[in-house]
Structures are given as structure tokens and as C-alpha cells.
Amino acid sequence: MVVALQLPSSKIPILEIGRHLSNVSSSSSSRKRFVSNSHQPPQYPTLFSPINQSVAAIVFGDGSESRLYPLTKRRSEGAIPIAANYRLIDAVISNCINSNINRIYAITQFNSTSLNSHLSRAYNGIGLGKEGFVQVIAAYQTPEDQGWFQGTADAIRRCLWVLDEYPVTEFLVLPGHHLYKMDYQKLVEAHRSSQSDITIAALNCVREPDPGFGILKVDSQDRIVEFSLRLVKNSEKPNDSTHSTFSSMGIYLVNKKIMTELLDSYIPEANDFGTEVIPAAISAGMKVSAYRFDGYWEDLPSISAFYQANMECIQRSNMGYNSFSDKESPVYTMPRYLPPTTISDAVITDSIIGDGCILNRCKIKNTVVGMRTRIGDRVIIEDSVIMGSDFYQRDCIQKNGIGISIPIGIGDDTRIRKAVIDKNARIGRNVMIINKENVQEGNREDNGYIISSGIVVILQSAVIPDSTIL
């Protein structure tokens, strides 16, 4: 819903409070863009404290509806394992740390147990300095608000009393399940030098957007003049050579004062930040700018996109996300102190192997193998994502009381091709997970798997009996 506001004239000066923070002077020198080079750090207006003191990040780790089901059946999107040793949210938190933003609030709600545990254990002081933190704010109820968070804007509004703890000047609002590398310091620099109220990171191209992020119409000064939920085709609207269109990335840098005034005073009923707060700010005449980003970015809108992102991590090409092996901007995660992976006469090509695995006489090609994975003899795995296990489990279980012994891991003589195997799955012996009938879509949750875009997804903790053919 797009909200158009006609503000009383008495309110306008209050909105301008956030803008005056960056008005160092009216001279042209105070308005020029601050540029950094390899020999000189960025120079910010003297009114602002260093970024680690003046900017706080607000990270959302989940949503009520996920397009990555069944990987989100028991976890939020940000907690999904990727690239053997990591979780999706690690990429976003690491962007903050590498950008010298060390005050990070993670707001969680749906299926948040795994994510809350990971954040609390992974970022207990790592790379955050003496005053840095990653603080988890789980959904809560009060006598005044006895329901769940109704959206990103509602969640921020109800958490403002926590977010007001430190005297920061801007809030950086981030989705926690996207895969990209960005130096947020450059975003902050552009925001301050343009004296904007809100700055939105935008892809330097147009593609079909997430409905919650939308399309931005931008003028020659990078000011956003219109927000829409879908791309307007040429046949629907005449060409406009004075404006450009970009896809929003759902990343917002907002002046703290403006955030408070918008959510508390002007649109106190708004629930979603992208579809309600941004259009309202534009309608109110606030300066909403675009920051163009031309790097790799993937919002993982489907099982197919998640699968492809893992495959690109293996390739380590310029086409995909390559920060997992970037020493200059490392991706942080929880230290687990696992033993080295044990390999016994295995043939492994073009693959990533996580920590603490036990690989017997198997063949692995073009595959991501997650932590603590046990793979038996004569197993062949190709073009797949194996998420591993949360613990070592060599004991067997009984299925329906009929002595079928299947430990966690992948049993002898099994073959897997183009599949995603979720954590703690028990794959029996002589199993064929190859989508033999080339099914594109299928729901077999009762049998422990689904098929999405031709990719077989084995559910978390599923049991696949011996000699099964999928």
C-alpha cells in the first residue's frame, strides 16, 4: 500500500531536524562529494563521529513467508547453512564488521531458535571492538502490544526504546538473508554528502524485484521520485529520458531523527518499511536518494537460486559470491573447534568440504559438503549441496519398529545427483537420489523430500530407507 501524506505546515520544521545534521555550511565546499582513494581514507564532515560510533545496523533475519521452504521448515532464512561452514546471515553481519559498523541489532521472530543461538554464540566480541555488539531482539509482547511484529516497520517502531540506547545519527536497515559484499562506509559517505534523509541501495540495473523491495524511479541527481512494486513496461508508460529505474535491494540508511518521527508521529500504523514507509517519505517531500551498487547481489528467492549460489561458491568465479575466500573482507561465523576432515581413499574434484567430515572410499564432484558429514564406501555425489550434521551420530535408529538401521549421514553404495540434503538427514544404503523421472515440481514431505525446479530437497532429519529410488 502506498501512503500519500499531506503534512501540516507546523510539522515540516520537525522533519527538517534530521536534515540539518549534515548541513555543515552553505558553501559549495561543504556540499561536494567526499571521495576516497588508496592513499587517503574517506573524509567525512567534522560534525559526524566515526562510523563505528555514529551508525547502528538493524538486521532482519526472517520473514513470515519464505520462498526457501522446506529449508525454512524449522529455521529462519538467515539461519540456512551455505558454503559448508556458514549461515546466510554471516554474509550480512560480516559486511557490517568489515565496514567498521560494530553496533548491530538483529530483530528475529519466525522459527528463530537456531538463528538466535547462532548469533549469540558466533559474534560474542569477534571483530567488534570493546564497544561493539550483536544484540538479538526476539519478538516480544507487552501489556500494550500483545501480538507479533506485523512487519519490519512495526518491529523497528516497537524496538525504538532499545535502539535509542546509543547516540547514533543513522540506522542501517538490512535484510539478513541476502548474499553480497558491500562496503557500507561508501553508502554512508554518499548519504551524508548528499544530505539525504533516507538513502536506498539500488542495483545498478533493473531486474524483476522482490515484491517487498520494489522499483525506484531516480532523477539525474540520484533522488528517488517514485517507488513502485513492479516494473512498468514500455507499453504501459511513455519513455522518460529524464529518469532512470533501478531495483531496490531492501537496504535503507535512515537518519535516526527521521526514523523516529516517521514511525511514531506520521505513519504510526505502517507495518512494512519498503512498501509503506518509503512511499510515505517520498510523498512527504523528504529527500530520499539512491546509492547505486554494481556488485554481485542475490536475494535467494527460490530453491533454485539457493542451489545456484552454492554452485557458484565452488567455482570461485567473478560471476558469483566469492567472499568466503576473500582474506581482505572475510566472512565470520561461529568457531566450532571441530577436528580436521578425515579422507580415506576418496576422489574429490571441484568441491568444498566443511570441517569435521568423515569421507570413506567415495567420489565427490562439484559438491558442497557441510560440517560433520559422514559418507560411506562407494558413494557417488555430483552437483549437490550436503548441509552436514549438528552432531556426530553413529548410533542407529529403528523405523516403525522394524530393524532398519540408518545412522546420520550417507550410506554405502548410494548415488546422489543435483540434490540438496538438509542437516541431520539419514540416507540409507544403495539409495538413488537422482530424480529419475525428471520431475520439476513435487511435494513428498510425508516421504521426507520435495522436488523444486528439478532439484531434490531432502528435509532436515529425514530418513530415507535403504534401496530407495527418488
Summing up helix and strand content along with how strands pair, one would put the structural category as: alpha/beta
- How would you sum up the major sheet? 9 strands, mixed
Please estimate the helix content. Answer: 10-25%
Count the beta strands: 31
Count of helical segments? 10
Percent strand equals 15-25%
Which overall shape is indicated by the principal axes computed on the Cα atoms?
Answer: elongated
Distance between the termini: 44 Å
Radius of gyration: 24 Å
Low-confidence stretches: 1-46, 398-403
Give average pLDDT, whole number. Answer: 83
Describe the structure.
With 470 residues, this protein is an alpha/beta fold. Helices cover 20% and strands 24% of the residues. The strands form 7 sheets. Strands 1, 4, 5, 6, 8, 9, 10, 11 and 12 form a 9-stranded mixed beta sheet that branches. Strand 4 (103-108), helix 5 (113-122) and strand 5 form a beta-alpha-beta unit. Helix 1 (12-20) runs antiparallel to helix 8. It starts with 11 loop residues before the first helix and ends in a 6-residue tail after the last strand.
SSE order and pairing:
Layout: H1 12-20, H2 28-31, H3 51-54, E1 55-60, E2 81-82, E3 86-87, H4 88-98, E4 103-108, H5 113-122, E5 133-138, H6 152-163, E6 170-175, E7 179-180, H7 184-193, E8 198-203, E9 215-218, E10 224-228, E11 244-255, H8 256-266, H9 273-283, E12 288-293, E13 297-298, H10 303-315, E14 342-343, E15 347-349, E16 352-353, E17 358-359, E18 363-365, E19 368-369, E20 374-375, E21 380-382, E22 385-386, E23 409-410, E24 415-417, E25 419-421, E26 426-427, E27 432-433, E28 441-444, E29 449-452, E30 455-458, E31 463-464
Parallel strand pairs: 1-4, 1-6, 4-5, 8-12, 14-17, 15-18, 16-19, 17-20, 18-21, 19-22, 21-24, 22-25, 23-26, 24-27, 25-30, 26-31
Antiparallel strand pairs: 2-3, 6-11, 7-13, 8-11, 9-10, 9-11, 28-29, 29-30
